[in-house]
Design brief:
The complex is a heterodimer of chains A (about 280) and B (about 270). Chain A has about 280 residues and is mainly alpha-helical. Chain A has twelve helices and no strands. Chain A starts with a helix and ends in a 10-residue tail after the last helix. The mean pLDDT of chain A is about 85. Chain B is mostly helical and about 270 residues long. Chain B contains nine helices and no strands. The N terminus of chain B is likely disordered. Classes of the chains: A mainly alpha (about 280), B mainly alpha (about 270). Chains A and B meet through α5, α6, α7 and α12 of A and α2, α3, α4 and α9 of B.
Chain lengths: ~280, ~270
């Protein structure tokens, strides 16, 4: 018996390592199962909880609590893209004028805003506002045993709480992204023409020449895919929160971290597969 | 609870709803000042500082790498398409260096420090506030700002500066491999072009941005965590607000720092 114990002691690190790997693997499995359940329950969500979806759309676009005071998700995401558009004006104009081609700032705005910055920043804004908000709400419900109460009342909690949130997030992101792109364009244009004094004709000429409507559609597609992934990740962490008030806070932190990584990978994957072969340029003007 | 609140709500807009955001802004700046003063008071809680530095570094390092590599590859890839089209692929090192040092390095660090370090700090402090542990500290004559907030802010600043260097390094290495092995840029041209537009002041700009970002995110996290109220939902909301406010603060700092650097005397 004691020899057996000693054997156990010696192999303890191995047991720990394997259970760690197995836990991580189980975690991935649990997430995949949760996501597929959420997607299949969307039908029920549309059929029975249409009203809940509409309520969530209103809540998500305007925000809740202290976030509503400063204007909600729309203002926050608009503000973030406004500031990145301004960075394009500042850095783009100054660095391009270093090599004497500051006329191309309009081109940089049309190119970089659409392909990288706006999808990434809008996704980050979504994760921070709607996503983290959903995690906090669902986590608090889980801690207060409200989700168990729903199950007891024979309400399908995944359909009612999770699928509706994913659908509402995707509905909200479409007008939200329109605002985000317009903010980014206007900030870059104002910074370049209003502050640095480039003539608006030059700016608009290069901007229009290189603004590609196919790129814009792909950019929309990227953001919608990103929104689905962000909402799924955030609702998973909220729905499975545990460990009291601190646990809810931890769940919000973990979900933000995971969704940022997933979002970057999605933007990268779509960008590589869409623009990977050719640049889709229209250089002749 | 909600019925009670609705019953109490006056018909006219009270001055409360107007002054509350202003008051919390004021409280935030007051606490930030307290924190800065507390940083220079001896004895400084070195133990807490080291523990927090280790903690923030530990939770941030893997997400930093996971975020920095795809982000730089994305930017470098998009830029290289353009350069190849112009026939100037040899300059891809120039673009990669400028992008990683002045923008990607600091901004990725921000996202990670705000998204992981600050949220964990806020959740930790919020849980302590909910369990009245901060009040217990005050009863014992220990100032929570001095004992808990000051070392955290300093720790996040130190870690953010180190992370900027790491992200820049990883970003440069990632873009080198991507440009050379996937997009067939000459390695020598890549290395030679790196210092064409990017010099030491740009590197200092990146590090300063990182320090400011880390400090702002930690200050927001500590303020939100210490002033949390209202049970589990309250902690969740505080963490959510930490993320949103720190992202906003970071983007504002980014534009201000970039504008000051480029428009000031160089």
């Amino acid at each position: 018996m004691s020899a057996h114990d000693a054997e156990h002691q010696r192999l303890a690190w191995l047991v720990d390592a394997t259970s760690g790997v197995a836990n991580g693997w189980n975690h991935v499995g649990a997430q995949v199962k949760f996501y597929s359940e959420t997607v299949t329950e969307m039908r029920t969500a549309f059929g029975r909880y249409g009203k809940e979806i509409i309520r969530l759309v209103a809540q998500m676009s305007l925000g809740t609590g202290a976030l509503a005071v400063i204007g909600g998700t729309v203002v926050i995401v608009g503000f973030l893209t406004l500031s990145t558009g301004a960075v394009i004006a500042v850095q783009g104009y100054n660095q391009l004028s270093g090599i004497g081609v500051e006329a191309m700032t309009g081109f940089v705005s049309a190119y970089v805003n659409v392909r990288i910055i706006s999808p990434a920043v809008a996704g980050v804004g979504l994760a921070a506002t709607i996503g983290a908000g959903a995690t906090a709400q669902l986590g608090a419900m889980r801690i207060a045993e409200e989700i168990d109460a729903l199950e007891v009342m024979a309400v399908r909690s995944v359909a009612y709480l999770v699928s509706t949130r994913v659908v509402a997030g995707v509905i909200v992101v479409i007008p939200l992204y329109c605002i985000a792109v317009v903010c980014a364009f206007q900030a870059a244009r104002f910074g370049t023409t209003g502050i640095y004094g480039q003539s608006t004709g030059v700016y608009d000429h290069y901007f229009r020449t290189f603004l590609n409507s196919t790129d814009l559609l792909w950019s929309f597609f990227t953001v919608i895919t990103g929104a689905v992934a962000v909402m799924l990740v955030h609702t998973y962490y909220g729905y499975n929160a545990s460990g009291g008030p601190a646990g809810v806070g931890r769940a919000v932190g973990h979900s933000v971290r995971t969704s940022l990584i997933v979002l970057t990978l999605i933007v990268l994957a779509i960008s590589l597969s869409v623009h990977g072969q050719s640049g889709h340029f229209n250089l002749s003007g | 609870m909600s019925a009670n609140q609705a019953g109490k709500k006056p018909a006219v807009i009270s001055s409360e709803s107007v002054t509350k955001p202003l008051r919390s802004l004021g409280e935030f700046f007051a606490m930030s000042l307290d924190t800065f003063v507390a940083m220079f008071k001896l004895p400084f809680p070195w133990r807490e500082f080291l523990l927090q530095t280790w903690f923030v570094a530990r939770v941030s390092i893997v997400p930093t790498l996971l975020l920095a590599i795809p982000f730089t590859v994305l930017v470098v890839f998009t830029m290289n398409i353009l350069l190849v089209e112009f026939g100037a692929a040899d300059f891809s090192g120039t673009g990669a260096a400028t992008a990683s040092v002045t923008q990607i390095g600091p901004v990725v660090t921000v996202l990670v420090v705000a998204g992981t370090g600050a949220t964990a700090m806020c959740a930790d402090l919020g849980a302590r506030a909910i369990h009245d542990e901060l009040d217990a500290l005050r009863v014992l004559g220990i100032d929570p700002v001095r004992r808990l907030a000051a070392p955290r802010v300093l720790a996040a600043t130190v870690v953010a500066v180190s992370l900027v260097s790491l992200v820049t390094l990883v970003g440069m290495a990632g873009s080198f491999f991507f440009s050379v092995f996937v997009q067939h840029v000459t390695p020598g041209a890549f290395a030679g072009g790196m210092t064409l537009l990017t010099h030491l002041p740009d590197l200092i700009l990146g590090l300063v941005k990182g320090a400011l970002f880390g400090m702002a995110a930690a200050l927001i996290a500590c303020y939100k965590g210490i002033s949390v109220g209202g049970g589990p939902q309250g902690v969740g909301n505080a963490v959510n607000e930490t993320v949103v406010y720190s992202f906003i603060a970071l983007f504002v700092i980014n534009i201000v720092a970039t504008a000051v650097y480029y428009t000031g005397p160089q």
